[in-house]
């Protein structure tokens, strides 16, 4: 594995027939960003900012957030850094926000829903991110978007954040890409509409699977039903990528599926543009990508899309994977 890391870290992620993809890393802290370039990451595809908010007694102010986001932007030396706005709720608590106890926290007051309800919280974060854009290439991503209105509202708050920065005379980047996570089936199904308005998508398979098959991602009792190779999930992924391509936008994936070498040929075949995973998976996935042809992967994807069960999908992918070795 160490040898793989050395062989693949500096190699571009391009298939034998020239399809170039971007391999990015998921991070939760500034520290994790410091060695990413050495580890072969070309970008940060998901910066989970909630860790900046957790483990302390109050909201981090604009300055504190600005410092953290800038540090990551600088560590990546101009490579893209996709910063996700606060995704709290669900399984992640923030005692000082005094979130209500809920019957179904994953279906409740969570992520962008909190941001749009407590607008000053989102506004402060967006100001900090836009300011950090001066130190590199940052992109903003909104979590748990389920409909067009939420995205449009978030965009208005971003415009307000820029306007405030302008009035305060603080330097900020005004060419920041704005995207959404696709992790709710309604958003995947509306991808065509979203693709006309957003700059990019990033598919969060961890939640997308949970919501598509109605299986709590934390519940071991039903974990046998939780599978990103479920044909329904694969169809949604295809729909999202196709919608982005039709509209000249790009699609990434930052859920666990992106870091699975077994899924890699399928995702190449579907035309995924950006892949974001834990840094430790980068060389394993890249190893697969550089050994496949996109044309063969496209044929594989077509076969897989005709299958009815996750078990059949897995079998097809395993058979393909054996030939790659
Ligand atoms: C996802 O849902 O796939 C995702 C990347 O977000 P998180 O795991 O932080 O919910
Ligand atoms: Mg998620």
From TrEMBL:
Domain of life: Bacteria
Keyword terms of this UniProt record: Cytoplasm, Kinase, Magnesium, Metal-binding, Phosphotransferase system, Pyruvate, Sugar transport, Transferase, Transport
EC numbers: 2.7.3.9
Active site, per annotation: 254
Protein location: Cytoplasm
Domain PEP-utilising enzyme C-terminal residue range list: 6-293
Main location: cytoplasm
Catalyzed reaction equations: L-histidyl-[protein] + phosphoenolpyruvate = N(pros)-phospho-L-histidyl-[protein] + pyruvate
Binding site for Mg(2+): 183, 207
Binding positions (phosphoenolpyruvate): 48, 84, 206-207, 217
Top class in the EC scheme: transferase
Keyword Transferase found: yes
GO biological process terms held by the UniProt record: phosphoenolpyruvate-dependent sugar phosphotransferase system
GO molecular function: kinase activity; metal ion binding; phosphoenolpyruvate-protein phosphotransferase activity
Cofactors demanded by this protein: Mg(2+)
GO cellular component: cytoplasm
Function: General (non sugar-specific) component of the phosphoenolpyruvate-dependent sugar phosphotransferase system (sugar PTS). This major carbohydrate active-transport system catalyzes the phosphorylation of incoming sugar substrates concomitantly with their translocation across the cell membrane. Enzyme I transfers the phosphoryl group from phosphoenolpyruvate (PEP) to the phosphoryl carrier protein (HPr).
Similarity annotation: Belongs to the PEP-utilizing enzyme family.
The protein's name in its UniProt record: Phosphoenolpyruvate-protein phosphotransferase
Organism per entry: Paenibacillus elgii
